[in-house]
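User: These chains co-purify. Model them together.
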Amino acid sequence: MASGSVADQEGQVMLLGFWFSPFVKRVEWALKFKGIEYDYVEEDLTNKSTLLLTSNPIHKKVPVLIHNGNPIAESLVIIEYIDETWQQNPILPQDPYERAMARFWANFIEQKVREPAREALFSKGEQQEKKVKELKEGMEVVEGEAKAKLNDKTLFFGGGNGVGYVDIVLGWTCNWMETIEEVGGFKVLDPESQPQFHKWMANFREVPFIKPTLEPKEKLVEFFRMVRQDRLGLVANK
Amino acid sequence: MAAQKVKLLGFWVSPFAYRVIWALKLKGIDYEYIEEGIFNKSPLLLQLNPIHKKVPVLIHGDRVICESYVIVQYIDETWPHCPLLPQHPYERAMARFWADFAETKLLDTAWLGLCARGAEREKAAKLAMEAVEKIEEVVKGKKLFGGESIGYLDICLGWISYWLPVWEEVGSMQIIDPIKFPATSSWMNTLLHHPVIGDNLPARDAMIEYFQKRSKDI
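Assistant: Joint model of the two components:
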């Protein structure tokens, strides 16, 4: 597969982000995992910088990675870019079939866990109930995969003791899922029916380069409560 | 591994299955095609893709791969000749970015337009056109997204050249105006005249009939 040369790795790495964004956190984890130095720029949600708007004119969202002046947007696209440009500590597996499986699960997590979770957070009543049901179904599948792949020797989806692509893509659940539950007023996490997933969460939280990056739950709850009220307030006023 | 038998579970009118067909044909990979009746899903499909229960599904030896983007990248990495994705990581990132953009901002909205009526349809068609505006900028000055030869992004967006005009006709919408989008129209034409694409498309009349029925049912 294609990979960057040493020359490709040169040059400044800048990450535009929001402290509360799980997508930004994924990219930070990828950078830290590989020991890549980068400049972090905290964006203002209510006042997006010219740099952000010119670097990601299509979506106007973070994260945006700017490497050698070249901007890349979308967290999963950025992570694959990082993995192909800097070869140390591979994030995706080497074997094409294992890579396909990792990409499949990343896609599943995005469509069947992350998206319903976001929609459940920003909805209420019947619409929210529908999304919570979808989210629970998604989590059942995740638990099934965790049961199949993880054990006392294989703590992470990346295999063995090392995190990999799927762990990085799923990692937002460790902090944000409890936040979403509390702010949205529903329950999805259940240690009894999701024992393997909860073991994985506990292990992921303790990974040395992950642990210091996890935002305090109270801070996330306060912030997302405000965003939820704001969003639902807009909907009610229509 | 590359020498192991390849099978593709598909549906005759699925643009997603055709991405995989085009990738296999471009690389000259022999495969057995299995037609799946998606409204009456076979035990084989349910066994191979229990998560999504959808086609396409690629079976390579004892390996099973689902999701068209995942399959196309698997094909590209397993049979590296005639590469589909660009070599340089930044170009690859751009291809992946635009593939994702076209899927969420054009394909999903065009499909919504087909299935909706009245104001909802108009709104979806308008959003789809806005997406084409962006794609127009990317393809301007290029024969194909892959340069001189068909690449990953051409394969991922290839449905635009054939499925979208059918959806436009069935849904009485205009999304690709050749005057507004000359570069995109030219690209569509180039693609349709490429032997691998042009010779591997479902019959148009059958497609019209199928999508007319589908849009009514939905």
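The two ends of chain A are 51 Å apart (CA to CA).
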